[in-house]
């Protein structure tokens, strides 16, 4: 429950911090950190324009998308505290419930019969598909290391002892950050601020959404960011008492948001047709983690 | 006993009756027979599912010996699946075949084959005499051949049918080889002889024997590289037959493999590893090819191959569990495999029925031509959507439960194991996750381009929604899909008997591994549906008084007609196709737009199966080349043919004489 509330709170300013970081690095003052959420609230109050081509899929997809993200957030633990949902193998549910949202997002893009949105849908489907194995191998390695199969138990019993485990922690963070970037369609996979339909992924899929639906989709993106941030923060929280973990949590989230802002300011987007290979290569980083775990467990001795 | 007699009598009577009745009643009689047969065999099956070992001996003949009819929980499980799929198939087919009423004789044959198929599948699950088993298997192969070639005036249908017939017989050949081997060694046709033989003999013989059977059954189940008949047979058959075929006929191969696992006592670890390898290959290869297909039913056929791979992963985990003495792993693995068998029979038959609705409305299966069917066919769209979500393994539907169990098995395998197993498990995780992702690409493509957007092709008649008679069995399947998704624990408990046949040690059915997780998953699924409903309601409430406008899709300012501009199925998977191209054989025809006054440009892609190219086409070509060398013999001269006959007869008569003569000569020389 505690992680759920904290993630909701984080989601209110996470996007703002990214934008603020980006504007500061480019020498502007930039909007306040609550500007994105204000934009969303304004969108929620607006009327909508629907494409004549669309069917009921287009109407229900945004609601299901945000539901899937909320369900996924419920699974995220908070250090020693369980998430609202916690059972053995809950991260499988986590990955698949996010998949439901993705599925509906993709088909709602196809529902418009547009010449652009299919493009984004195709890329989203392809890229997130390649990110999946990396996530499962990462979780498999952590399972092997800790002997547990739920988020909460894994994070609670994860402790860093040797040099190898520090390297593993760094690699795991790297994989999770990259998965976040893929799942949220951010740099270096996708550039959300591009203004050409041909070069977008996520943005092009929601070209025809407007008003309340668009607000929900944008808020879901913020939630997703905060959710992955919480996942990464969990790697480092351990089972400290609450008065320590809550500051760690917010600190990690801030750090994460600033890192994304910096990353987006100083890197260019990958070439679209090399993205898939790049994302698949994430699996090899995950495999490296797996080998590291084997080393720790002394399987090679 | 009375039930078995009634079963046989019903089958025979209805087969005799069908050709002689009015064409209007043929379908109805078939449906009634299917229902009756289903009830009769389900009585036995349900008893068997409760753990009662049913055994009955027919007297048999001097050739076969006693014919044992044994039904254990595994048989019961498969009989129930078969009967349910046949029920929905018959009900759907009743409406589907109405347009073919002018072909009376053809229809009679179709009905008879349908009844025979159900009867033979049911008997395959319970007969345990090798000769009679093979006879039932042959009846099954022939009757499904008759069902496939219903539209035999089309050339490709006939080709697909003959392809199926040949491959079925290769399958029978392997089975026969295994059975003859055992019969020679043990002098018995009972399945129990297999158990005795494999326990008494070195482990190696057991493994070889198992793989002899495995290849036979794998051809039927569609494991790569034995899958090549499947993508032809499914599109050629009428949709209810494709549904039944994908739902249960290929599952009889799975039944065979499981039955042999029970009968053959051997080195399960080796078997497990090999099955895991083949299954991963099957799963990934199947879905990779499914994505690039242009024909909807062919796409579904390849996706069946993928799902067979997932079932295989479950089976292999179970085997590894037995081999390692890990009770939990074996239970989770086999439960996952059996549940996925059930699940796949549900959503795949539903998908094929939906494809049938689309076919009868639009008269094409070409995905590139379809589009926008959702507007006219809202029920079919909804049903296809549910089935696609389920087949992608997404919650809150049944596909997730079985995939979760298999993931659970993989993670269980991670505990306290050795390096070899760990590497295999990681391959399994990678494969299963990749399969899940690829399946999503495949079914977003199928659903999106068939039902959404606008039509990519001008239809002569506006497509209409299917009649209610077709939709009722389909909604029945959806109910089960949702029920399994919401109450997984309940279903799993019912599985404990067939699974406990495989378990290393006995386990109490109340104490199922992953049981707690499953009940929470059921709750989560319900919560998901409720929450989505709630959010949708809030959205509806909030936007009730807002202005709503309908306008053209965003096209950078272009507002004309956009059906030619919308993203096609081919372009949707283009990025993927480019990436995976080295692994496929895709034949392309391209006409670029060039010059100052350009003509129409065009591009065609014809996906072909590389495994088929190498394993079927290439050897055939070599054989043909070899036999072509002897073509001079066939010169069309009658005199020559008579000469061949004379030469043949002379040789047949002459060789024994020659041998005798030579023997005498050698003896004579020896004496000297």
UniProtKB/TrEMBL annotation, chain A:
The lineage of its organism: Bacteria, Pseudomonadati, Bacteroidota, Chitinophagia, Chitinophagales. It is found in: Membrane. Pfam families: NADHdh. The chain crosses the membrane at residues 56-79, 91-110, 130-151, 163-182, 216-236, 243-263, 275-297. This is Formate hydrogenlyase. One of its GO terms (cellular component) is plasma membrane. It is a multi-pass membrane protein. InterPro entries: ComplexI_Subunit1 (IPR052561), NADH_UbQ_OxRdtase_su1/FPO (IPR001694). The keyword rRNA-binding does not apply. It comes from Niastella vici. PANTHER family: FORMATE HYDROGENLYASE SUBUNIT 4 (PTHR43359), FORMATE HYDROGENLYASE SUBUNIT 4-RELATED (PTHR43359:SF1). Keywords: Membrane, Transmembrane, Transmembrane helix. The keyword Ribosomal protein does not apply.
Automatic annotation (TrEMBL), chain B:
It is found in: Cell membrane; Membrane. Residues 129-411 form the NADH:quinone oxidoreductase/Mrp antiporter transmembrane domain. One of its GO terms (biological process) is ATP synthesis coupled electron transport. GO terms for cellular component: plasma membrane. The chain crosses the membrane at residues 6-23, 28-46, 73-94, 130-150, 162-183, 203-223, 244-262, 268-292, 299-323, 382-401, 421-452, 472-492, 517-538, 638-659. It comes from the Bacteria. GO terms for molecular function: NADH dehydrogenase (ubiquinone) activity; oxidoreductase activity. Its main location: membrane. Keywords: Cell membrane, Membrane, Oxidoreductase, Transmembrane, Transmembrane helix. It is a multi-pass membrane protein. The keyword Plastid does not apply. The keyword Transmembrane helix applies. Pfam families: Proton_antipo_M (PF00361). PANTHER family: FORMATE HYDROGENLYASE SUBUNIT 3-RELATED, HYDROGENASE-4 COMPONENT F. This is NADH:quinone oxidoreductase/Mrp antiporter transmembrane domain-containing protein. It comes from Niastella vici.
């Amino acid at each position: 429950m505690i992680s759920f509330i904290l993630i909701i709170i984080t989601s209110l300013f996470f996007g703002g911090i990214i934008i603020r970081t980006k504007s500061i690095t480019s020498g502007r003052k930039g909007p306040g950190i609550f500007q994105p959420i204000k934009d969303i609230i304004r969108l929620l109050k607006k009327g909508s324009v629907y494409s004549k081509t669309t069917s009921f899929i287009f109407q229900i997809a945004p609601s299901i998308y945000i539901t899937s993200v909320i369900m996924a957030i419920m699974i995220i633990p908070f250090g020693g505290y369980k998430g609202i949902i916690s059972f053995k193998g809950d991260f499988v549910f986590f990955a698949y419930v996010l998949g439901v949202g993705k599925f509906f997002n993709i088909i709602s893009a196809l529902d418009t019969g547009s010449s652009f949105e299919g493009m984004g849908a195709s890329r989203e489907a392809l890229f997130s598909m390649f990110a999946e194995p990396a996530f499962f191998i990462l979780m498999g390695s952590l399972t092997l290391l800790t002997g547990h199969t739920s988020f909460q138990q894994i994070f609670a019993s994860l402790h860093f002892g040797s040099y190898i485990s520090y390297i593993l922690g760094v690699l795991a963070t790297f994989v999770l950050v990259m998965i976040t970037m893929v799942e949220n369609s951010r740099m270096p996979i996708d550039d959300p601020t591009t203004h050409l339909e041909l070069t977008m992924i996520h943005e092009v899929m929601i070209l025809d959404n407007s008003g309340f639906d668009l607000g929900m989709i944008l808020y879901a993106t913020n939630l997703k960011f905060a959710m992955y941030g919480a996942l990464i923060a969990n790697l480092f929280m351990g089972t400290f008492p609450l008065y320590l973990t809550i500051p760690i949590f917010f600190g990690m989230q801030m750090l994460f948001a600033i890192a994304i802002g910096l990353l987006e300011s100083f890197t260019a987007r990958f070439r679209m047709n090399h993205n898939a290979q790049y994302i698949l290569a994430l699996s090899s980083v995950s495999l490296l983690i797996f080998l590291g775990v084997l080393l720790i467990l002394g399987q090679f001795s | 006993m009375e039930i078995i007699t009634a079963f046989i009598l019903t089958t025979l009577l209805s087969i005799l009756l069908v050709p002689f009745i009015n064409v209007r009643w043929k379908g109805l009689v078939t449906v009634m027979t299917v229902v009756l047969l289903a009830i009769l065999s389900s009585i036995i099956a349900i008893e068997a599912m409760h753990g009662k070992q049913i055994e009955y001996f027919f007297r048999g003949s001097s050739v076969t010996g006693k014919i044992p009819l044994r039904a254990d929980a595994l048989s019961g499980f498969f009989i129930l699946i078969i009967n349910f799929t046949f029920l929905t198939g018959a009900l759907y087919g009743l409406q589907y075949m109405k347009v073919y009423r002018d072909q009376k004789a053809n229809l009679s044959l179709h009905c008879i084959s349908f009844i025979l198929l159900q009867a033979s599948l049911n008997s395959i699950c319970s007969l345990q005499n090798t000769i009679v088993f093979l006879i039932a298997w042959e009846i099954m192969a022939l009757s499904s051949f008759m069902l496939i070639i219903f539209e035999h005036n089309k050339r490709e249908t006939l080709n697909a049918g003959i392809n199926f017939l040949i491959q079925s017989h290769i399958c029978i050949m392997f089975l026969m080889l295994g059975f003859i081997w055992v019969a020679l060694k043990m002098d018995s046709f009972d399945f129990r002889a297999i158990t005795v033989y494999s326990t008494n003999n070195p482990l190696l013989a057991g493994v070889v024997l198992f793989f002899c059977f495995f290849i036979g059954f794998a051809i039927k189940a569609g494991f790569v590289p034995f899958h090549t008949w499947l993508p032809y047979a499914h599109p050629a058959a009428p949709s209810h037959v494709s549904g039944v075929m994908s739902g249960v006929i290929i599952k009889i191969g799975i039944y065979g493999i499981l039955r042999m696992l029970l009968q053959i006592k051997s080195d399960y670890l080796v078997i497990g590893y090999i099955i895991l390898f083949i299954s991963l290959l099957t799963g990934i290869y199947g879905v990779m090819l499914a994505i690039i297909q242009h024909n909807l039913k062919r796409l579904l056929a390849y996706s069946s191959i993928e799902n067979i791979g997932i079932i295989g992963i479950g089976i292999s985990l179970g085997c590894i569990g037995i081999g390692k003495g890990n009770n939990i792993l074996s239970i989770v693995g086999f439960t996952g495999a059996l549940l996925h068998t059930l699940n796949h029979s549900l959503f795949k038959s539903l998908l094929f029925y939906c494809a049938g609705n689309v076919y009868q409305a639009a008269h094409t299966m070409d995905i590139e031509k379809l589009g926008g069917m959702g507007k006219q066919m809202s029920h079919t769209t909804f049903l296809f959507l549910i089935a696609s979500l389920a087949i992608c393994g997404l919650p809150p539907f049944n596909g997730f439960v079985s995939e979760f169990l298999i993931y659970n098995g993989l993670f269980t395998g991670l505990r306290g194991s050795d390096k070899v197993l760990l590497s295999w498990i990681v391959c399994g995780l990678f494969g299963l996750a990749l399969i899940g992702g690829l399946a999503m690409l495949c079914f977003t493509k199928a659903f999106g381009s068939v039902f959404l957007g606008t039509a990519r092709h001008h239809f002569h008649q506006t497509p209409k929604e299917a009649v209610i008679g077709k939709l009722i069995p389909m909604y029945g399947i959806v109910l089960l899909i949702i029920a399994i998704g919401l109450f997984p624990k309940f279903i799993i408990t019912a599985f404990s008997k067939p699974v406990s046949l495989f378990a290393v040690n006995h386990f109490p059915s109340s104490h199922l591994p992953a049981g707690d997780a499953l009940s929470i998953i059921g709750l989560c699924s319900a919560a998901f549906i409720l929450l989505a409903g709630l959010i949708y309601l809030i959205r509806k409430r909030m936007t009730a008084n807002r202005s709503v406008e309908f306008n053209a899709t965003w096209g950078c300012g272009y507002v004309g007609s956009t059906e030619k501009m919308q993203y096609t199925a081919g372009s949707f998977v283009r990025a993927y196709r480019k990436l995976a191209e080295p692994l496929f054989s895709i034949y392309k025809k391209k006409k670029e737009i060039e010059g100052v006054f350009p003509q129409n440009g065009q591009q065609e892609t014809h996906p072909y199966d590389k495994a088929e190219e190498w394993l079927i086409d290439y050897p055939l070509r070599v054989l043909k080349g070899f036999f072509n060398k002897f073509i001079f013999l066939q010169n069309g001269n009658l005199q020559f043919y008579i000469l061949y006959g004379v030469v043949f007869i002379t040789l047949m008569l002459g060789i024994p004489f020659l041998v005798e003569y030579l023997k005498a000569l050698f003896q004579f020389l020896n004496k000297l």
